[in-house]
Specification:
By secondary structure, this protein is of the alpha+beta class. It is built from 9 helices and 6 strands; from the N terminus they run ααααββαααβαββαβ. It has 2 domains: 144 residues, no CATH class; 83 residues, ACT domain (Alpha-Beta Plaits, 2-Layer Sandwich).
């Protein structure tokens, strides 16, 4: 008891660093990062992306906490150094969201959005609240308002000679069902607005055949092509369905 009585509580760094004004500033920064990160995360969650609501909120709040801490401890110069580390650190986090397979790379937009959430949090942590709001609006705009333009560009025909990738859909079925299956294939691709340049039919194992539908050179949404293949695989008589791409230099 004597030790407790004689102890100088003022020597504790944690007690000494309590500053209500600074605490209020930190709460404002973290709250702003939380709200703005939520706005970005809700849009990502709605579209069922790899990184959803909680991930974007945590990235924004984490970036804000690091920058705010550095700003308080060493001033603006320290905040600048920590921001640089946040940028590189979130780059590694974004790399984990990128998946490669089936001749396609997915998750680039998710990784870029995580980077944007970190920028929003860093602005909030540096007490640049209006800048954080502006960054949020631009990130949301890139993920929502630009979608009609992306769809318009993807549907525009392109010069086959300048196209770097060609796509084809393959269906394996019994020889007796090939006419019916080809009709299904043509209807599904037409519904997805992917014009067919031509069909090729080749013998396969046993009594099966391979039906190849080569798409005209347009930009392809791999997610939509996956859905077309899934519907094909569910058609009676289809043994296997898949799509492939080839790249020309």
């Amino acid at each position: 008891m004597g030790f407790i009585r004689d102890f100088d509580w003022r020597s504790l760094e944690a007690i000494h660093n309590i500053n209500l004004n600074s605490l209020l500033d930190t709460l404002i920064s973290l709250a702003a990062a939380f709200v703005l990160g939520t706005l970005i995360g809700v849009e990502r969650q709605y579209r069922q992306r790899t990184a959803g609501l909680r991930t974007h909120v945590l990235v924004a709040v984490g970036a804000a906490a690091f920058v705010d801490m550095a700003n308080r401890l060493t001033g603006h110069e320290g905040a600048v150094h920590i921001t640089a580390y946040v940028v590189s650190g979130v780059g590694f986090l974004g790399a984990g969201a990128i998946m490669k397979g089936d001749a396609s790379i997915r998750g680039l937009n998710t990784a870029a959005t995580l980077w944007g959430s970190a920028a929003v949090g860093a602005c909030a942590g540096a007490d640049l609240l209006l800048e954080a709001v502006c960054a949020t609006l631009f990130v949301l705009g890139g993920n929502t308002w630009l979608r009609p333009l992306v769809n318009l560009v993807e549907r525009a025909p392109i010069d086959g000679k300048s196209s770097e990738a060609s796509y084809s859909v393959c269906v394996i079925c019994n020889r007796q069902d090939q006419r019916r299956i080809r009709g299904h294939l043509e209807v599904l691709l037409e519904a997805a607005q992917y014009p067919v340049g031509g069909f090729d039919i080749h013998p396969f194992a046993g009594n099966d055949v391979q039906i190849f539908a080569t798409l005209l050179p347009i930009s392809v949404d791999v997610d939509e092509l996956d859905r077309v293949v899934e519907r094909l695989a569910a058609v009676e008589g289809v043994n296997q369905a898949f799509w492939s791409s080839s790249v020309t230099e």
